[in-house]
Amino acid sequence: MAENDINEVAARFGGSALTYDDVATVQARLADELAEAAAPHIAPGGHLLDIGCGTGHLARRLAALVRPIRISLFDVSREMLRVAAPKVAAECNVLVNCYDGDAETLPWPTADAVVSSSAVQWFARPLDFVTKAREALQDGGTLALATYGPGTFAELRGGASSSYPSLADWTKALTDAGFHVVSSKRSVEKQSFESRVRMLRMISLCGIGTNRTGQSTEAMNGDWTLTWETISIVAKL
Asked: How many domains, in total, are found in the chain?
């Protein structure tokens, strides 16, 4: 991300750290599905690295399934880390390390599994996540990723960008980097709202921000429905 974008994203998510879980229902379900898909491919007793950990939902869900001995949480928002770290430590009974900053540019610790849900779409170059994960993973390591495709928020001008990588883009990047894709899934779903106010509240409390999307919703003519295109991939070295 450009420096200004980092600060903007960090501020938005920091401001919604205490309310994020109340409204991020699509994100929670996506993380749960990723954990279920990834768990059979992650050996117990290892080190999990969660990129863009948010409130720690994915880390906690995975820890319950694979029982790691250490979890590293990486997020651009210190406020999110302050919410996530004590939850993960208390619920999972593991050593927790925290890294705050831009995961796209900062070095990552070595890990047995690199996981991320609803985060890499904020990278200036999302596919760079694959390269960074390849560098961080031990031989035989697992990458588990959930993100959003180019159809997300298609209703909004200035919403999700059509430049978001597709499932085919992610699969090619992983294969080129030496990964073997063991599972992948693409889904499209609609989320409906009672009013424009409720839609904008969800957008804001999820850290997405309303500065670019607020005016776009005025042209929706009362059809308060948003599209989510979700992508989940599990791959092994």
From this structure: 1
Among 130, 165, 146, 148, which residue's Cα sits nearest to residue 237? Answer: 130
Examine residue 157 and state whether it is found in any structural domain, yes or no.
Answer: yes
Sheet hosting strand 47-51, strand order edge to edge: 95-100, 70-75, 47-51, 111-117, 137-148, 225-236, 180-192
Q: For residues 181 and 178, what is the distance between their CA atoms, to the nearest angstrom?
A: 10
18-65 pLDDT per residue, tens: 778 887 889 999 999 999 999 999 999 999 999 999 999 999 999 999
Q: What is the pLDDT of residues 112-161, one digit of tens each?
A: 999 999 999 889 899 999 999 999 998 999 999 999 999 888 887 555 45
pLDDT band at 2; cut points 50, 70, 90: very low
Residue 225 exposure: Cα atoms within 13 Å on the Cβ side? 5
End-to-end CA distance of the chain: 27
**Are the CB atoms for 224 and 29 separated by under 8 Å?**
no
Q: Is residue 219 in some structural domain?
A: no
With CA atoms as reference, report the closest residue to 109 among 46, 41, 177: 46
Q: Residue 100 to residues 6, 10, 14: CA-CA distances in angstroms?
A: 11, 10, 12
* Structural domain that includes position 28: 3-192+226-236
What CATH number is associated with residue 77? 3.40.50.150
Whether residue 79 is contained in a domain is answered as yes
In a domain, 204, yes or no: no
